[in-house]
Amino acid sequence: AKSAGGNRFEIADPEADARAITRHGLTNALPAALERGEFFIEYQPLVHLGDGSVHGAEALVRWCHPQHGVLGPDRFIPLAERTGLIVPLGRWVLQEAVRQARFWSRRHTDGGPLRINVNLSPAQLQHPGLVADTVDVLERSGLEPGALCLEVTESALIGADEERLGPLRQLAEMGVDIALDDFGTGYSNLANLRRLPVSVLKLDRSFTQGMQRHPADPVDLKIVEGIVSLAHSLELAVTVEGVETAAQAEQLREIGCDTAQGWYYARPGAPDRIHTLVLADAV
Ligand code: C2E
Ligand code: CA
Ligand code: CA
Ligand code: CA
């Protein structure tokens, strides 16, 4: 009887009601939005901490809603996840991002191809077409598998058995990188990392935020140092998210993180931005 209390509250709260209607409306509008091409992708660069050169970019989806304007993924990905629309939407993001990466790689022949990171949601992981779809997208674009990195959250892999990990393992064997996204926010045992087919750890933004203070919290620094040394001993590369200041970048570089992403370098933006940044590098 206690558990029904939360619902009673919501019904009595007109604002919550409006939110629910919006959620309902957004959910219903998703399939047509995909058909009408209302989704678009922004790209945020990943840079090498060593020399600041561009390593690649993460694809981040947005919805240009005819009434509500541009909506961030936090507004609609959970809805798409619940209805299963995330599978065709995720496939579209993959196809579009890989096409874009292939386009970049045609224009920048030196220094190897720019890498493209694409987020995978738990429902996509469970979808039986994942491997075939990914192979298909790569083959049709001509992008080499080694230039693609699929980001999977720690929570999606917690407790995953071999059956669940199989498709990721297959992709990893083809040369696709698998990154453990939002690392440090879940409860996964560090020793568990060894049995996962991942090659990259993406340290969650919460760690970088802890380093914002001057001087940075020594305990946070020690934790990041510990994670980086463990990751490196397991031959995993470490990417840090949410780098907003030069001081953070310097500290993370000293600790030995490999790549970084954050507003300090660039906010997510149109694909041309990435092109411009790479060209600026080359000068
Ligand atoms: P994420 O994968 O952890 O992506 C990083 C988020 O941090 C992005 O938010 C990015 O804009 C934001 N960010 C980057 N640098 C900074 C910084 O320096 N400071 C701060 N405060 N934030 C920064 P965004 O674009 O709103 O995406 C939110 C989440 O939505 C993503 O988190 C990801 O989980 C999900 N998402 C985005 N695109 C897709 C997609 O195509 N498929 C799926 N399944 N999920 C997606
Ligand atoms: Ca991500
Ligand atoms: Ca993340
Ligand atoms: Ca996140």
From TrEMBL:
Domain EAL span(s) in chain numbering: 23-282
Designated name of the protein: EAL domain-containing protein
Organism: Streptomyces peucetius
Phylogenetic placement of the source organism: Bacteria, Bacillati, Actinomycetota, Actinomycetes, Kitasatosporales
Coverage span on the entire protein: 438 to 720 of 720
